[in-house]
Design brief:
The chain has helices at 15-34, 39-56, 64-95, 104-119, 122-133, 137-162, 166-173, 178-212, 221-229, 233-261. By secondary structure, it is mainly alpha-helical. It has 10 helices and no strands.
């Protein structure tokens, strides 16, 4: 009988795989207890959620002008931080590409720096930059820039690793410099991936910039925090709706641009 005609079946699990699955299940159950996960608490809190939603509507337009200004500042932080982050990612991505980096030490240093930027949350970077440059949108912009380098640097390097090596070898054979090879062969081949990653990064930065205001790094986050702390829920709902509209607008624009360019 041709085994290709038989329906797909689960393969028998090895003893090591079974032991690993049991350990994972035990850890997951322990994690449920550690996080105090409780459906009963959700059910008991449902009436309070209903009261909160009732107090949020109708949204208040009393401070619409300052809120819109803060929303614009939020998007400006995301845009400037993303642009500078993408530019720095191109430079760092080249150094983190095995076939383009000058030597192994620089390759490892670039990879480590990108990993550091990526693993530390943007909220922590915002706290650090608030200490360095003070309260305000500049600290938030720097935090977004560093977070963008961590995100784009890795994907840019992987995109440059995957491009066809043939054109690079041809340019090298006729005496082209390393910089000329990168600009004339690697970047054009990896450009669609660069654009897609940069647009995803802008979407991510727009969402991130909303919460950076909670630590004093500018943007509309501080407006939302003050509204919630002062129990001004109708004003908070206005901010949430405007943030939702901004993020949705950026995502739609980004998606449209990706479809046209890539």
């Amino acid at each position: 009988m041709d085994h290709r005609l038989l329906p797909l079946r689960f393969t028998r699990m090895s003893p090591l795989g079974f032991a690993g699955s049991v350990l994972f299940l035990a850890f997951f159950i322990a994690a449920l207890r550690g996080t105090h996960f409780s459906l009963g608490e959700i059910v008991r809190g449902a009436p309070y959620m209903g009261e909160l939603v009732a107090e949020m509507f109708p949204p208040s337009l009393a401070r619409l002008g300052p809120v819109l200004w803060s929303l614009l500042e939020t998007f400006q932080m995301a845009l400037v931080g993303t642009v500078f982050g993408v530019v720095l990612s191109l430079f760092l991505g080249v150094l983190a590409t095995r076939s383009l980096t000058p030597n192994v030490a620089i390759y490892q240093a670039a990879r480590t720096l990108i990993a550091l930027f990526r693993t530390v949350p943007d909220l922590i970077w915002a706290l650090i930059f608030v200490v360095l440059v003070g309260l305000g949108p500049f600290a938030g912009t720097l935090a977004i820039m560093v977070d963008t380098v961590g995100f784009c640097g890795r994907f840019f390097a992987e995109a440059m690793e995957e491009v066809d090596k043939g054109p690079q070898e041809a340019l090298s054979a006729i005496g082209a410099s390393r910089l000329g090879t990168i600009c004339c062969s690697v970047f054009p081949a990896a450009l669609p991936s660069f654009i897609g990653t940069a647009l995803f990064s802008l979407e991510k930065a727009t969402r991130s910039s909303v919460v950076l205001g909670l630590v004093g790094a500018g943007g509309i986050g501080i407006e939302l925090k003050v509204s919630m702390d002062m129990f001004m829920y109708s004003q908070a709902s206005t901010i949430i709706i405007l943030v939702f509209a901004l993020v949705l607008l950026v995502e739609r624009f980004s998606s449209h641009l990706r479809q046209r360019v890539i």
